[in-house]
From TrEMBL, chains A, B, C, D:
Superkingdom as given in the UniProt entry: Bacteria
SUPFAM superfamilies: Glyceraldehyde-3-phosphate dehydrogenase-like, C-terminal domain (SSF55347), NAD(P)-binding Rossmann-fold domains (SSF51735)
Signal peptide: none
Domain named GFO/IDH/MocA-like oxidoreductase: residues: 147-300
Gene3D superfamilies reported for this sequence: Dihydrodipicolinate Reductase, domain 2 (3.30.360.10), NAD(P)-binding Rossmann-like Domain (3.40.50.720)
Ranges of compositional bias, category Polar residues: 433-442
This protein's name: Gfo/Idh/MocA family oxidoreductase
Residue ranges constituting the Gfo/Idh/MocA-like oxidoreductase N-terminal domain according to the UniProt record: 9-128
Region: Disordered, residue numbers: 232-251, 390-442
InterPro entries: Gfo/Idh/MocA-like_OxRdtase_N, Gfo/Idh/MocA_oxidrdct_glycsds, GFO_IDH_MocA-like_dom, NAD(P)-bd_dom_sf
Keywords assigned: NAD, Oxidoreductase
Length: 442, 442, 442, 442
């Protein structure tokens, strides 16, 4: 809203299914509620099927279409490539785009393997040196209540992080007659509940605590091993990416080759224990992404099914009036909220995507690294990989790979073991002293 | 309330701290709200300190006192021994009591080691052959909402059990300046959060599903390694068991030798995955014993902090009006409730103890095995042990011991592994057929 | 639990239905958890039907029985008369008992008419001068969360009371086929939802705010005008008081002569508006006694269906972390709780009755007025009466009677009217100054 | 998204503050998620201050601006006039627009007086005869959970409506130092909490039940009678309508001339009692628009602070598993939802506005009356007026005006009075029979 109009930022988006629709709404809306330093223009939509792509472009508001994503790379006028395809094409497209000097936003999970993700992270580092930006689409970071949680933890409001418990529960696969989509095929999706929704709570754990995972113990489960093939793959609009499932023969059933539920126990770099569960079989839970972070001075708790609320516990409050406070994160001083509506007039799912565009555009304009970076995406990929490897080896503790220095080897038994990981243990004298420090809470 | 008065059932209770007070209220109240086939009489209270024991007996309503639990064993007029001491004395007392032909109720966890528990379970079997009954005090089984949950699962209302997620969260140790009690000493308490509260959710998982644990992967954590010794051990009324911590006058701090938090992933005998967390450091959670059981046809969810409520999800309900139903388990047709108050007039913590006495007295009178039996208590002990052993060995999958036949070896990776455990996996054809079966839901 | 045994306090109870059972549990339990200055003894139970009375006495723990309440009055050894009959006999029994020098506890509502209640209040004043105590059984005052609410308001934590909104919702009459009990007959019960449950929220409003009602506008409704007569009146154990409904002939249906739902708007003595609803037709609400008090500096909210919780809003908290705090009123420093269980181990409905006995016995021993007094009970009766009169006169504003000075005449239109009632209106200058006062919040 | 492009529908919007921003988002978004029969074009924005209007147009996406709303009326190319100004200009603009043959959408409350509203309703009827459409912006009707509630009631799922209880609680005026805006001035806003937010729950009551109000008893309150004038009126962006408060430079305080809280009891045309409260002083309640409708066979409950949820109670469910079901109204078969996101990915406040545009455009294209009509808006206005008049006359029962036939005179005392209003009373025989009718529930 400044006097001079901002420069245009021309965007091409690849894929137009669920994620493509959400991203389109974000590109369209961001500048209407936020002052942006650049003016995003919805220039080019990419999809295989020409008719459906044109139809999608008309509805979602993209100016042009093409059937070949390589055209995006070759066109000089495209500034940003927004990748909304299934995971198996992320790496190839992102590498080409970065190489061509285009800023990249890529949906999560960043890739289908650690090797791909490593390649992408290296490319992102090189591109950054040339002023080309890249970001992974963990949009839940931009829910105001979770952004608030991050701020409160960073300010020390809950003290040192002691424990994280997170669940991501859905039930859309609990009915064994629901069809086999690409999300149930390992070669397309990489993994199942683990990578699809587990990736979100892994990323959120890192985002909220500012830490990384040191290691994990994992366990995977597939409840339904065969499912009916979609009656007509191409009609699967809500999940379709423009390419189809491919290779299915005449039979009516196909094998599920990913996990339906994933469990993990882990430790952060500080040694703090984490417990994770991702399931698409949790009847009655529609999008229950829940995370609770317990610290030495308090706790925070969130459930996406009530997404405008953060529950805050302050252990410094006298017991007589202590309790979890239901903070409706819709006040003007909550992150992003001032641009929207008055208190209590809640936001919805797609607002996280709009905030993501806002932050991405600001980072591009300022020449700064947007978050989460491909390095952060790579870390999530490594955690996913460690969970899978642990699961395949009797849940044995599996360190998460790092770059450069060898991974520490935290044992699962902090009490009696010899851990290379910084311990969260404390004795009462030091911690008590810290708790009384007036500076810590102010 | 029958015409002829029931025969007396003379009870001796050992220990009068927290558990002793709850048991006393139960013995005193059971016959006032329920018709009992025997008339429990609060005959003898045992505690080391004579003055305090007499004081406790007067307040709690016990007729006599003694300082030596062996007197209970020797007295012919005592029918029931109710053991409310710390875990390190359970085995010795219970074995002597059973040997002497006295019915035994013992607080959980049943023992401090698997070896002790095995001895107790064997003794209980022998005693049962002579008509002597024994029971472990997992009182949460008798909360009406949880009893209702058990019934609904047994009736097939949620179909085949697919997943269990359970937490037991408290925060009374989160302050590092809170003192070192016997519950923090391995030799007295056996373990920490694991055995104290984790035992409850292990037992509840078995109770609700009717299954046992096949194996686990565990992880323990001690956050605060040293704590101040109680100012005056003997004044620790709320946790005191009549014997005191002893021998620890001079020094100011002592080592915590148990876990503060315990995490575990496990599988039931059916192969269904379970995730468990027990923590006494979860700021803001006062007694949040939460359990959610997801089946193929629905789900049930419970939180003890709202103990009169069971949330029920029926997947057979059309999506338009489906959701978790908040069942206030205070209706006359809910278990135990008819004896109490009208709908909505909730019960409290101690009612579970009263119901436990009711069921115990009925079992004794009928010459039947009360539940949970020492065999069930032994199973919980073995799960606790497996969690500890796994935790000490990099969280590696650890089968839970069984009697007779060797333990199965379920791998943590059901999808790609070779599991000896009956799988919960299904393919859509068979399960779909089952789901449509009209008989299953009626 | 002092060295010398407390003196006995011999109690006679009249009626043994729902309320009689709750009172018995309270008399039996109070001394087991609280140190009492006198030792209540459950001496004499009164009921018309000899067999059932004896049966009740055996189950509830009363030593003797009689069929005539006048025997209670005549016996010198009875110290306390506890009146648990329907409202039509309260006045006669209470007057006789006070006259005879016996302390009186009477169930709510205190009487069936204002005239009776005035007589009782006068008698109570005279008796008090002779050291004889009396109290009305509004037991919800003794729920710890509500006692906490009272304390917080009295401490000024929510500032000046601005508004009260209260509901008491049940659904046990919503089914038109449920039978006609004495609670549906005006001559026995006085009124319907209004006096049965509306009386509780009227009393609680006074208790929490420390104010009285100046006037009301009321509206009553009877949804079901005829109901089946109970199959066998005498078998109606849960509602039966030992005397029977009487006068019913052969027909199958009888007229409902009380309200099913009562609505009212009122003003407190300070002018603060109050809105009240009592309904026994609110499907799905089992015992939803809800009250929210909004002040100038915060608010408190309570629902009996989650009776261990008080929600507290502190307007002094910065907006970023403000919200209702869910205080689980089970901490040792919450009212009455220290005598019971650890945090999070909730209390139930009957605990309010136990606390009532504790306070009553303390008041008797100390020679002090227990609360609520008959004067307070009279005020509730006058509010009930004003609601009924207003309802009969097109909901016109109806002042609540007072003793001595004529009732003020608050108009329903504070803004433009001339109100004799102290206004809660304020202008920003004065109230702003007050809000900033550092002493007020510390 | 049909083959041929839909015809354009050119919109002019007057005012660009809070409501203008919400409407702009709706006009911009509707066609992106829904197939519309006409293509809304955001043509012309009207505001007094040229600079700010142009700035707003640029941000909100309007093509042109003007400073005079009469230009809108005169231009032939404008099809729709969307009125987002304060209530005092609604009538004049709407009458002119309808006269000029333009479809009109007007924000609620429709007018500042019954006289204005009557004039508008007549004009709307005349316009409708010429194919010109009009609608009042009660957007909460288009929240999916509330639309679902309407459908369930219309289907008979809760039987006959017996009671409605509704609250609209906010706290943005609870701080007496918050400034005097136009919403606090009677000549601009018409009334205070009553018309601003009370209007919503009055309209929702009618919408959900399909009934109208027969009469009311009201009570108004102004807690803070003077407030500071805005530091700089023109900077009041969030509430500013482009015209400013004006004429108020020197003095520091101004009088509040509207109500801060409004209470009412009423009866619907069926006789069903309703209780209403609107308050902008309810500390801690940010946008708690709550409504519960109790019927003879069940109940529905909603709170806008958890806007994606409808709680449903079905009295036909056996007591053992009955309870309020938390329906997350985000399933594909919930109203409007299929166009958006998968289950559990909630919608926000502005989605109601988008749905309103969708329905309005469909009605215009189909030549049908959109709802709520000006007739419905007039009824709300008459209820507001009746509440004010009752409040000024000691809360005396005040019939709500109707057209043509004289208003019925429902007495507040249904039980003993002679009511001209159809009674909701029933006797058990007839209602029981109805309840058992198999057709009613299927």
């Amino acid at each position: 809203m400044t006097g001079t109009s901002p420069q245009p930022l021309k965007v091409a988006m690849i894929g137009y299914a669920f994620m493509g629709r959400a991203h389109s709404q974000a590109w369209r809306t961001a500048g209407r509620f936020f002052d942006l330093p650049l003016d995003p223009q919805m220039s080019l939509l990419v999809g295989r099927n020409p008719d459906r792509t044109q139809q999608a472009a008309a509805q979602l508001g993209w100016s042009e279409t093409t059937g070949d994503w390589r055209e995006v790379i070759e066109r000089d006028d495209i500034d940003v490539v927004d990748i909304c395809t299934p995971g198996d094409s992320h790496a190839e497209i992102a590498l080409a785009a970065l190489e061509a000097g285009k800023h990249v936003m890529v949906e999560k999970p960043m890739a289908n393997s650690v090797a791909e993700a490593e390649q992408m992270a290296r490319a992102a580092d090189h591109a950054a040196a040339r002023g080309v930006r890249s970001m992974v689409g963990f949009t839940y970071r931009r829910v105001p209540a979770l952004q608030l949680a991050r701020e409160l933890i960073a300010e020390g409001r809950i003290g040192q992080v002691r424990q994280v418990r997170a669940q991501y529960l859905q039930d859309w696969l609990a009915d064994p007659s629901s069809p086999l989509t690409w999300r149930l095929q390992r070669e397309r999706a990489g993994s199942g509940a683990l990578g699809d929704i587990g990736a979100h709570i892994i990323d959120l754990t890192c985002f909220l605590t500012g830490e990384r995972f040191a290691g994990v113990s994992g366990m995977l489960e597939t409840f339904v091993s065969e499912r009916p093939l979609p009656a007509e793959a191409s009609a699967d609009g809500s999940e379709h990416n423009g390419t189809g499932l491919g290779g299915r023969s005449g039979e009516g059933y196909g094998a599920v080759t990913v996990d339906d539920a994933a469990l993990a126990m882990g430790r952060l770099s500080s040694g703090a224990p984490v417990v994770l569960e991702a399931s698409r079989f949790a009847w009655g839970r529609k999008n229950a992404m829940r995370i609770e972070v317990t610290g030495s001075l308090g706790a925070l708790s969130f459930d996406f099914e009530d997404m405008n609320v953060l529950h805050v516990y302050d252990a410094g409050e006298p017991g007589r009036t202590a309790g979890f406070t239901r903070v409706l994160a819709t006040e003007p001083d909550h992150p992003y909220v001032q641009a929207w509506w008055p208190p209590g007039h809640g936001l919805g799912y797609e607002h996280g995507f709009t905030h993501q565009v806002v932050d991405f555009v600001h980072a591009v304009a300022a020449g700064e690294q947007p978050t989460p970076s491909f390095q952060e995406g790579l870390h999530v990929q490594r955690v996913l990989d460690a969970v899978e490897r642990s699961s395949a080896e009797r849940s044995t503790w599996t360190p998460v790979e790092t770059d450069g220095d060898p991974a520490p080897d935290p044992t699962g038994q902090a009490l009696h073991g010899d851990s290379a990981v910084p311990s969260v243990r404390e004795n009462s004298r030091t911690s008590h002293a810290r708790q009384n420090s007036p500076t810590e809470r102010s």
